[in-house]
Write a structure and sequence with these properties.
By secondary structure, the protein is mostly beta strands. It contains one helix and 31 strands. The strands form eight sheets. Strands 4-31-30-29 form a four-stranded antiparallel beta sheet, with no helix packed on it. Strands 5-6-7-8 form a four-stranded antiparallel beta sheet, with no helix packed on it. A four-stranded antiparallel beta sheet has the order 9-10-11-12, with no helix packed on it.
């Protein structure tokens, strides 16, 4: 008999043939434990881990919150919604700072520049809008995608990358209308993008079930990662650029080695599609969120489930960690932005 490593599991006893708990998704342990630790000892150790708690729930959007981002200066949160607006909130107090209106369709993604001065928003109206974070005014509108835009990220203070339903990835230079480069290769919608500056690696996830790695600035395709059974909805690169996480509608999170494209772990436990993944800075923790209404925190070294965070009343679409890793923000179908903090 094997037993669940999660001390809060409602039914810790599991059949021997399973690797992960059929009740909560945590890794299973043999009856004698691992590395000489018994089950009770390991459960006690798990209880001593730092925990996360929701310290604030922010309401104000009139539709689902599809995307959230935390400013690098830790002063504000940006949230993009199905109500066609971007809202900027003071991170500590939750006070509304600005409502940015101008899109004519759902917001799908938001991003904040490295200097925290510009907010980018991507929409089903096929445009990207750039906003002045301090004043709340529109700076410029970027057009070029021929279909809905699903993802946007700053590559630098002057360059953006986006991906959309037209199956392309586009790089934009702020202050110029034309896109710098367009990358094609996916066979279906591009749902997510991620970039690591030091390694100059761009990653893209797609409805075609693959993740692609590109080298910049040339834009050469380096690798195609296959293994998911359904659409890849979210990707993230670790702070050191060595790992890539992908979340899929197949209800799994996969962890990959960037240097060789090797699959390290398949993290199972969510009971519905995974919509967001994010690495916690300065740690070995990966967060994922799902249509099953939960956020799960995983150890990237062992593949173990560390915590399950509940509180959203619907699908959890988006996650973002603060730069120091002590704050996690989530946005969901319930129109809520939730702020979680790490406590020892």
């Amino acid at each position: 008999m094997k037993y669940c490593s999660n001390p809060d599991c409602p039914n810790p006893a599991n059949p021997d043939e399973n690797r992960f708990c059929q009740n909560c998704g945590a890794r299973l342990l043999a009856e004698e434990g691992i590395d000489g630790l018994g089950v009770n000892q390991l459960s006690q150790s798990s209880n001593s881990l730092p925990s996360w708690r929701c310290v604030k729930t922010i309401m104000g959007h009139e539709s689902w919150v599809r995307s959230v981002a935390i400013a690098p200066n830790a002063q504000f949160i940006a949230s993009g919604s199905g109500d066609k607006t971007v809202k900027l909130w003071h991170l500590e107090s939750g006070k509304l700072l600005h409502t940015l209106s101008g899109h004519i369709a759902w917001l799908r993604a938001v991003a904040i520049s490295p200097d925290s001065r510009i907010v980018a928003s991507a929409s089903n109206d096929k445009t990207i809008k750039l906003w002045d974070a301090a004043r709340g005014g529109l700076i410029e509108t970027l057009t070029g995608h021929s279909d809905w835009i699903r993802a946007v990220q700053f590559i630098s203070g002057k360059v953006l990358v986006s991906g959309g339903h037209d199956q392309t990835i586009r790089l934009w230079r702020i202050g110029g209308q034309a896109d710098v480069r367009s990358l094609a290769g996916h066979e279906h919608w591009v749902t997510s993008v991620a970039y690591h500056g030091e390694r100059q690696v761009l990653a893209s996830g797609s409805q075609d079930t693959t993740v692609k790695l590109w080298s910049l600035p040339k834009g050469n395709l380096v690798a195609t990662l296959t293994g998911h059974a359904e659409s890849v909805e979210a990707i993230a690169l670790s702070p050191d650029g060595q790992l890539l996480a992908s979340g899929s509608q197949d209800q799994t999170v996969k962890l990959w080695q960037v240097s060789n494209g090797k699959l390290i772990y398949t993290l199972s436990g969510h009971t519905d599609g995974v919509d967001a993944v994010a690495f916690q800075p300065q740690s070995n923790v990966l967060a994922s969120s799902s249509k099953d209404k939960t956020i799960r925190l995983w150890d990237t070294k062992s593949g173990e489930l560390l915590h399950t965070l509940s509180g959203h009343k619907g699908w959890v679409f988006s996650l973002a960690f603060s730069a120091e890793g002590q704050t996690l923000v989530s946005g969901g179908w319930d129109q809520a932005v939730k702020i979680w903090q790490l406590s020892s």
